[in-house]
Amino acid sequence: MSLAFTRTRFTWLAYLLLAFYGFFLNILGPITPFLKDELALSYTVSSLHFTAFAAGILGIGFGGHLIIQKIGRLRSLWLGAAGMSLSALFLIAGRNPVLTISASFLMGLVGSLILAVVPSALSDQHGEQRAVALAEANVVASTVAASAPLMVGWFAGGGGGWRLALGVAALAPVLMWLIFSRAKVPESPASTHASSAALPPVYWFYWFAIVLVVSVEFCMTFWSADYFETVLGIPKVNAAQAVSLFLAGMILGRLAGSRLVERISARRLVVVSLLVASLGFLMYWQAGSAFLGLSGLFLTGLGVASLYPLILSLAIGSAGVNTAKAGSRATLASGAAILSLPLVLGRLADLAGIRLAYGVVALLLAGAFLIIQIAGRLAASQSSAAGRSIPASKR
């Protein structure tokens, strides 16, 4: 019988900080049409906001574990939260693409300390129940992130301006500090030798799968507002708000996934989720009406929802005690995805139109399905080999 899942003070802090991070990451897509018009940007230059954010994530992916080892997980979390808020204010003040893109880079660079710490810390705290913790963390993050496009639409349509959505959210760490400043963060159990050891091959298969599924997620959140406006003729403000359908699908999907993972293996859930996401994307991509496009966007979000937390739990689980390094390298996977694919899709949209460019997502989903199959067989093979290597007297 499995033990009851216990949420500590730190568990809730981790959930909220990841949600705070997700809000700003997901707000970049809905504000892009406004920046594009105000600053007279092309698709390619507009996509550089996401690219710059992703470049910052890559910096943390390569060296974040060194910062975390130096100042500890707790200080790293609060540094990430404060840095993201200040960078958001910098973005609000920007009136040319150099400033706004630089602000996006700083948000990704400093704020992604949150992304590097939370998964590994939750894994260390909850052990074999890491999949439940990571799934729940992403449920909370998706719920908060879904409010980002709604807030942009509300403030832009109500006269306050889209910048007000960023300004209000930037105050959140102050409230979190007042409530959770005494939360105790579990430190990594890995030794210095373990943290310098190479991660196993199966980890890197899961790592590459994370690159592909995160690419799908952010190609949808970054470009779907523009897709609805350009291809389906939905007004700009309504198109920005429509992104919330994708995020609403993710909320429901992650909520369901956090419960199903207690009964069904994470690997099997990943396969089912990929099939649902593929069906939804085909509806979205081939839609001839707003209704079918919006329905497809929601279904795609439902399928994509659990892919990142489930594959992440499989990746960290394959790393043994080396969770800190595994978590930091997983951040690198997210950064690589956000750095490359939205920019590629934006460039293709400039050349061939955004509808044709979206075919990239179909290839990403197919690739993720293939890699998960390979990773599953490799993990099963390694597990079988490990079982045979244990003497019968010790089994």
How many E-type strands?
0
Q: How many helical elements?
A: 17
How many discrete domains?
1
First-last Cα distance: 20 Å
Q: What is the average of the pLDDT values? A: 84
Radius of gyration: 20 Å
CATH architecture: Up-down Bundle
Model description:
This protein is 83% helix and 0% strand. By secondary structure, it is mainly alpha-helical. The chain has a single domain, classed as Growth Hormone, Chain: A. Helix 1 runs antiparallel to helix 2, helix 4 packs antiparallel against helix 15 and helix 12 runs antiparallel to helix 13. The two termini are 20 Å apart.
Provide a quick synopsis of the model.
The chain has 395 residues and is mostly helical.
Keywords:
Growth Hormone, Chain: A, mainly alpha, 395 residues
SSE topology:
Elements: H1 9-38, H2 43-71, H3 73-93, H4 97-126, H5 130-145, H6 147-158, H7 163-169, H8 172-180, H9 192-196, H10 201-231, H11 236-260, H12 266-285, H13 290-304, H14 307-318, H15 323-352, H16 354-357, H17 359-389
